[in-house]
Amino acid sequence: MFQALADPARRGMVERLSQGPASVSELARPLDMSLPAVMQHLAMLEAGGIVTSEKVGRVRTCRMNPDVLSLAEQWINQRRTQWERRLDRLGDFLAAEEDPK
Amino acid sequence: MFQALADPARRGMVERLSQGPASVSELARPLDMSLPAVMQHLAMLEAGGIVTSEKVGRVRTCRMNPDVLSLAEQWINQRRTQWERRLDRLGDFLAAEEDPK
DNA sequence: TCGATAGTTAGGCGATCGCTTGACTATTTC
DNA sequence: GAAATAGTCAAGCGATCGCCTAACTATCGA
After folding, report:
1. CATH code of the domain made up of B1-64
2. Chain B residue with minimal CA distance to A82?
3. Least buried of A61, B34, B38, B57, by fewest C-beta within 10 Å?
4. Which residues on A lie below 8 Å from B77 (Cβ)?
5. A12-33 residue pLDDT tens
6. Is A92 in CB contact (< 8 Å) with chain B?
7. Are the beta carbons of A76 and B86 separated by less than 8 Å?
């Protein structure tokens, strides 16, 4: 699912979708790339759960799924804060060494 | 840099590093994988700016860089909240339609 | 100084990625 | 119902990924 965010074109699509649903060709328009290529990217975003889509008539409408994004966000946040807490404890320890009582 | 987080082995390394610096072989130990493979993963983490390392004597010590992680976190957070704000506005709009004053 | 330890370089190999073109299938719209 | 529209399937191709082994270098410890 980080996999899905690994490609710039796909991140572009997510940016577009973050401001509202879009059809496949709308997603494709700014992307200088064939439609099938866009579909493949879309498939990866769907595989990662970041995007869902449904087809009505001949147009497929894609929309973002914030839950999965929030999961990714949490994962990163946990690693980061764990590291930062560690730095803080280290700082405390060094301060205590330097000025014991 | 999302690229760097795309592989499970690398995420494992980041998890390990989030609880403190480690040598290359410490990172490799839980990973059922040859040392050169670990080095390649490490190189990608460094390329993505997520990890830095320095060699003293014969051991290379790796540590996490929270800044870049925080950047990724922000990117995700922005897309997600933008989408959620949109949903809120839409909800308000629908509520207003249903009960106009 | 000799051997063990920690890491590095190089080459190779199969799988996946990112993209293309060409052909085809549904839906509108006129 | 013919032509434009919106999307899909399939095959193929070069580049990159993820992994390996083999060979090598640089330190450290006894």
Report:
1. 1.10.10.10
2. B18
3. B57
4. 73
5. 999 999 999 999 999 999 999 9
6. no
7. no
Q: How far is the CA of A11 from the C1' of C10 (A)?
A: 35
How much is the pLDDT for B87? 74
Q: What is the pLDDT of residue B100?
A: 59
CB atoms closer than 10 angstroms to residue A44: 18
d(CA B77, CA B83): 10
Residues whose CB is less than 8 angstroms from the CB of residue B28 and which lie 6 or more positions away in sequence, other chains included: B35, B38
Cα A1 to Cα B96: distance, rounded to the nearest angstrom: 37
Residue ranges per structural domain of chain A: 1-64, 66-101
Q: Is A6 helix (H, G, I), strand (E, B) or coil?
A: coil
